[in-house]
Amino acid sequence: MIRDLETAKSICFLSEAEEKLLSSVERPIVLLAKRESMPVVEDVAPGNKYLGVMLPYTPLHHLLLENAPPLVMTSGNLTDEPLAYKDEDALVRLGTIADYFLVHDREIFTRCDDSVARVVGQKTQMIRRSRGYVPNVVKLPFGSRQVLAVGAELKNTFCLLKDDLAFPGHHIGDLKNLEAYEAFSTGIEHLKKLLHAEPEIIAHDMHPDYLSTRYALESELPLLAVQHHHAHIASCMAENGIDEKVIGLSFDGTGYGSDGTVWGGEFLVADFQEFERVAHFAPVGLPGGEAAINEPWRMAVSYLGAAFGDRLLDEDVPLFRRVGPEKVRAILRMIERQVNTPVTSSCGRLFDAVSSLTGVRDFVSFEGQAAMELEMCASELYSGHPYSYRIFKQEDCHLLDVADMIREILEDLRRGTAVGEVSRRFHETLGAGVTEMCGIIRDEKALGTVCMSGGVFQNALLSGILMKSLAAAGFRVYVHSLVPANDGGLALGQAAVACHRSSLSRSG
Predict the structure, then answer these.
(1) Residue-wise DSSP of 386-411
(2) How much is the pLDDT for 111?
(3) Hey, which bits of 206-359 come out as E strands?
(4) pLDDT number for residue 226
(5) First to last CA, the chain
(6) In Å, how far are 69, 84, 135, 183, 490 from 190, measured between CA atoms?
(7) Using H for helix, E for strand and C for coil, what is the string for 128-163?
(8) Are the beta carbons of 484 and 280 closer than 8 angstroms?
(9) Of 506, 487, 497, which Cα lies nearest the Cα of 172?
């Protein structure tokens, strides 16, 4: 947190659009490019070109910052727990990590995280939508039912729909424990009271084990399950006022697929009523399930195994020396025997694999760390030559196979190519492959509109490459700006799909 715009300019670079966003009445945290000489230690945002900067938004903040240097702020909570917003709760839960507490004679009525945003191509991109933006509405191109959508498990938000107005709730966080679940259910009741809303139907994710799904199942209201990646695309359509079939690029880390596998690199033909999975990234094993999310080197081994087959262990791979040959053999045996190795088409896991393969990140301490650091190290310059990839059709679905790219990345690393150059070429290759796949879908389905959604599109480099290449190929391209591309925007899509489906069924 900094005192004023002049201080912000002394530590970061600001465009006119970023300056406007930073000083807006909503006062979000804005991700800004760091200056080399900034007086903030690297450990505040290690391995990141950007710094989250915010201006004071309460009288107390202004008093604190009046004669102070930039202050490092963090949320008042432990990992995976909701914010502590009552004094007695904070003193107990944060007593072992905080040296002092600044309390106030005005009680906080409800917990609410700071919003986080950035500017990409002169357009605001929400990373976390909460304080300042809630309960602002998103107007839908249709509506009649009152719907409660309960979101997913990670970066949870909920959404209430009245008539044609959607009210996305504040950021809850990851629903992984009782405290977070209670904050989630309390937040829903608070928004219902504010809006005088009485939902007629609850929309939820198809994943049976999400706490948000269990909340829906315990309700006495009619339920409607919405597939995770369909909800992502519907969310992008809803905030852009689109009510037609589109090509939906739904790229993220994990989502429960309608075939029971782990999706995440999906090309959908979708509207609010239904979707068709017309293409996806070629699936690989997810060795260890969730362990592979926390240890990206496992995904690197999985992609290497798909690329080299039985001769993989004969290859010179620096990764093997870092993690140990025995661990690599164990992972390969798991994949071969299909032991605790679900199949995934996830684009997010592909980023993890390349991050580990290039030596950027083998283990993570927070979600998306490997992909983020891979993006941050990408070179500004590009040779203009993407890696090889293959598109082929299997039954009624097109597959984007990156095995050739994995082999060529390994060859680049052996030749001593800088990791930044490899990262940039990887991003550009994804842009080329995805654009080509969209062209194939356009030829088959006669569609010219593309909506991009999912956590992968928080990657500003990939998003920029795709927006440019798709537009050059003649597509109309839509992205998020009102709600996050990540799972924080999912409930909006769930609400829109549920309203559309239930309204049609009722009228029919």
Answers:
(1) PPP-EEEEETTEEEEE-HHHHHHHHH
(2) 87
(3) 223-226, 246-256, 262-270, 275-281, 284-285, 343-344
(4) 98
(5) 54
(6) 37, 17, 11, 10, 20
(7) ECCECCCCCCEECCCCCCCEEECCCCCCECCEEEEC
(8) no
(9) 487
Region for residue 110 given its phi and psi (left: phi exceeds 0; alpha: psi -120 to 50; beta: otherwise) = beta
Angle at 323 between CA 321 and CA 327, to 5 degrees: 110
At residue 371, the pLDDT reads: 97
Quote the pLDDT of residue 505.
Answer: 55
Task: Parse the chain into domains and list their residue ranges.
Answer: 5-120, 284-478
Question: Is the per-residue pLDDT at 508 higher than 50?
Answer: no
Q: Distance between CA 304 and CA 318 in Å, rounded?
A: 12
Structure-block tokens of residue 407: 């082999």
Residues 172-218 pLDDT 10s: 999 988 999 999 999 999 999 999 999 999 999 999 999 999 999 99
**Domain with residues 5-120, CATH architecture:** 2-Layer Sandwich (3.30)
- HSE at residue 75, side-chain half, CA atoms within 13 A, is 20
Helix (H, G, I), strand (E, B) or coil at 262: strand
For 457, the token pair is 């599109």
* CATH topology classification for 284-478: Nucleotidyltransferase; domain 5 (3.30.420)
Count of residues in the chain: 508
CA distance 419 to 477: 30
**Domains 5-120 and 284-478 fall in the same CATH topology:** no
Instruction: Summarize pLDDT for 453-480 with one digit per residue, the tens.
Output: 999 999 999 999 999 999 999 999 999 9
Nearest CA-CA partner of 343 in 426, 280, 295, 406 = 280
CA 414, CA 463: separation in Å to the nearest integer? 29
145 touches 485 (CB < 8 A): no
The residues, ordered by sequence, that sit 6+ positions from 443 with a Cβ below 8 Å of its Cβ are none
Note the pTM of the prediction, 2 decimals: 0.96
